[in-house]
């Protein structure tokens, strides 16, 4: 099966994010990583490849030059090929989905496409479902369990309070990973060496026929949220402190 | 005057309380509000929907949630009633349904909104896990928004009885088919919509000790959450994780027990209206972010707190 995994490069979860000129972030000193949910997507793609002999995993990533590092990491984990869609940092979710679909569709035998359920930068939670609609194929999001026999896919997804939906779909389809689906592997030294020799295919955004002028959602402004004022420590012996806490929650904060 | 559609979400036939936030949001302007509700009988919900201009009741042989059918039905309704903008709750279902709908009607969607200006089609949403806020404009076509639970102040329903119109469920073969819904044995509170959450970290020491939190949660009718450290240590299940790679929660009260307050956790609960921290370490970063803090051993403090809450709420 020709398996695809779409990844996004995002600032490290520890990074403090500062606004630059109203609509972008200050990238100085930002460490870039593969969005954590996309790591689950890569792992599941690799597991599927190991199960279905003759399979191949291709990773796609959209963005500027620096995203080649994210693709190298995916290759080192065991992905076979990588495509860098060059540009498109300011595309909206639908533009991103169309650009990804353009590349996937050029393979007449595309099978399952994996993504993370959301990227931890814009937190839009949309691209995976938009991609599936663009390709006119089924999709499941927030997936915690995945099984595939080559033709049929069965997944479980959490819908809140621990309740799960079981979904059946046919291949080709889109699967968006949640935490809990698997434990992503680390790249081995051999994987890292091998990855260095693989050529990353570059596709200019213009070739996909998508551009930012078609955006339906436009970013007006980024801002830092208001800081919470420093809270209050409640002193005293535990029994006394607890009594005071409950009083404050009822009388001052009025949340009980 | 804009024509606004609201997707009213039912859970096992029960009117979700966050629907009231959507209704309150739509009531703020001078809009013609259309509430779309998938059910066999709309009457039990009409009191909640007072003041809405039109209730569109979608009926069909099997109304169980199937994303493709629901999205196609909503697309048809939006076209037929010429709705300018549509809102849904940013719930598990809203997250699954609205992006599909956005693709079908080729319109822009802003998800997880903290506020929405329906007239201007602008919305504010958290990005970078809430480290920043982004203001978006939806251009052209229709505008779609999903709204985070517990952010819109609820105003009471008032006004005349809505006109009820009917629509039929799209009956095409769904590409994606939900074949089963498995209820969790514990029937836990959905954290993303919970009003009160008590949460435990690594200092809970063991899975058994989470019963301290569960006992307190029962008194408060709260959900039980956990930090990533507690989940990774096996004390709590992944669906309980609050934070960057878990759930983003927004309760009115969040009680963090034995949680140090790493940024990954904080970004998942920082919009809670009131944060209480209980931790042995007076230097724990969580105290800088809490409204009220108690330094103490949680195995001493939690049982006392439970009893005190029982007395106060009893």
Structure characterization notes:
The complex is a heterodimer of chains A (about 260) and B (about 325). Chain A has about 260 residues and is of the alpha/beta class. Chain A has 2 domains: about 1-215, Rossmann fold; about 225-255, no CATH class. Chain A has 6 helices and 15 strands. In chain A, strands 11-10-9-12-8-1-6-7-13 form a 9-stranded mixed beta sheet, with helices on both faces. In chain A, helix 2 crosses helix 5 (about 190-195) and helix 3 (about 95-105) crosses helix 4 (about 125-135). Chain A is globular and about 70 Å long. Chain A starts with a strand and ends in a 5-residue tail after the last helix. The mean pLDDT of chain A is about 95. Chain B has a 7-stranded parallel beta sheet, with helices on both faces. Chain B has a 5-stranded parallel beta sheet with strand order 15-14-16-17-18. A 3-stranded antiparallel beta sheet of chain B has the order 8-9-10, with no helix packed on it. Chain B folds into 2 domains: about 5-170, HUPs (Rossmann fold); about 190-314, Rossmann fold, CATH 3.40.50. In chain B, helix 2 packs across helix 3 (about 90-105) and helix 4 (about 210-220) packs parallel to helix 8. Chain B is α/β, with parallel strands linked by helices and about 325 residues long. Chain B is elongated and about 60 Å long. The model of chain B has no long low-confidence stretch (mean pLDDT about 95). The chains are: A alpha/beta (about 260), B alpha/beta (about 325).
């Amino acid at each position: 099966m020709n398996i695809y995994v779409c990844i996004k490069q995002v600032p490290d979860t520890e990074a403090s994010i500062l606004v630059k000129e109203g609509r972008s972030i200050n990238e100085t000193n930002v460490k870039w990583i593969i969005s954590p949910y996309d790591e689950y997507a890569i792992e599941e793609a690799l597991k599927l490849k190991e199960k279905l002999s003759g399979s191949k995993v291709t990773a796609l990533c959209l963005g500027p030059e620096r995203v080649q590092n994210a693709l190298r990491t995916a290759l080192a984990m065991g992905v076979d090929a990588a495509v860098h869609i060059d540009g498109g940092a300011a595309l909206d979710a639908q533009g991103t989905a169309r650009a990804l679909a353009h590349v996937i569709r050029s393979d007449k035998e595309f099978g399952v496409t994996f993504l993370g359920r959301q990227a931890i930068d814009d937190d839009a939670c949309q691209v995976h479902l938009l991609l599936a609609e663009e390709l006119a194929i089924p999709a499941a999001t927030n997936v915690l369990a995945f099984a595939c026999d080559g033709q049929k896919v069965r997944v479980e997804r959490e819908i809140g309070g621990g309740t799960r939906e079981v979904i059946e779909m046919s291949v080709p389809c889109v699967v968006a990973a949640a935490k809990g689906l698997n434990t992503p592997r680390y790249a081995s030294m051999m994987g890292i060496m091998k990855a260095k020799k693989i050529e990353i295919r570059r596709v200019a955004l213009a070739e996909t026929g998508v551009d930012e002028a078609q955006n339906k959602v436009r970013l007006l402004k980024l801002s830092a949220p208001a800081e919470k004022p420093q809270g209050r420590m409640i002193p005293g012996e535990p029994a006394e402190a607890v009594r005071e806490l409950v009083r404050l929650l009822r009388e001052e904060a009025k949340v009980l | 005057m804009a024509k606004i559609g609201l997707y009213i979400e039912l859970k096992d036939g029960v009117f979700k309380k966050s629907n009231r936030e959507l209704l309150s949001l739509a009531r703020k302007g001078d809009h013609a509000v259309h509430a779309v509700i998938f059910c066999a009988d709309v009457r039990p919900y009409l009191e909640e929907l007072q003041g809405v201009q039109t209730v569109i009741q979608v009926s069909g042989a099997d109304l169980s949630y199937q994303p493709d059918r629901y999205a196609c039905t909503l697309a048809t309704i939006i076209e037929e009633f010429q709705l300018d903008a549509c809102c849904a709750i940013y719930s598990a279902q809203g997250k699954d349904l609205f992006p599909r709908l956005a693709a079908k009607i080729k319109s822009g969607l802003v998800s997880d909104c903290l506020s929405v200006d329906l007239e201007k089609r602008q919305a504010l949403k958290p990005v970078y896990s809430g480290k920043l806020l982004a203001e978006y404009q939806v251009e052209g076509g229709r505008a779609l928004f999903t709204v985070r639970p517990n952010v819109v102040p609820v105003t009471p329903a008032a006004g005349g009885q809505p006109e009820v119109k009917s629509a039929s469920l799209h009956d095409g073969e769904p590409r994606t088919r939900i074949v089963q819904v498995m209820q969790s044995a514990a029937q836990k509170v959905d954290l993303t919509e919970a009003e009160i959450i008590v949460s435990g970290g690594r200092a809970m020491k063991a899975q058994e000790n989470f019963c301290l939190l569960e006992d307190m949660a029962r008194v408060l009718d709260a959900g039980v959450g956990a930090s990533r450290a507690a989940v990774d240590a096996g004390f709590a299940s992944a669906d309980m994780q609050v934070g960057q790679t878990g759930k983003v929660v927004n309760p009115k009260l969040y009680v963090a027990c034995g949680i140090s307050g790493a940024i990954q956790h904080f970004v998942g609960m920082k919009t809670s209206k009131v944060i209480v921290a209980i931790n042995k370490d007076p230097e724990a970063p969580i105290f800088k972010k809490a409204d009220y803090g108690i330094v103490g051993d949680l195995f001493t403090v939690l049982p006392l707190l439970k009893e005190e809450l029982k007395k106060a709420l009893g």
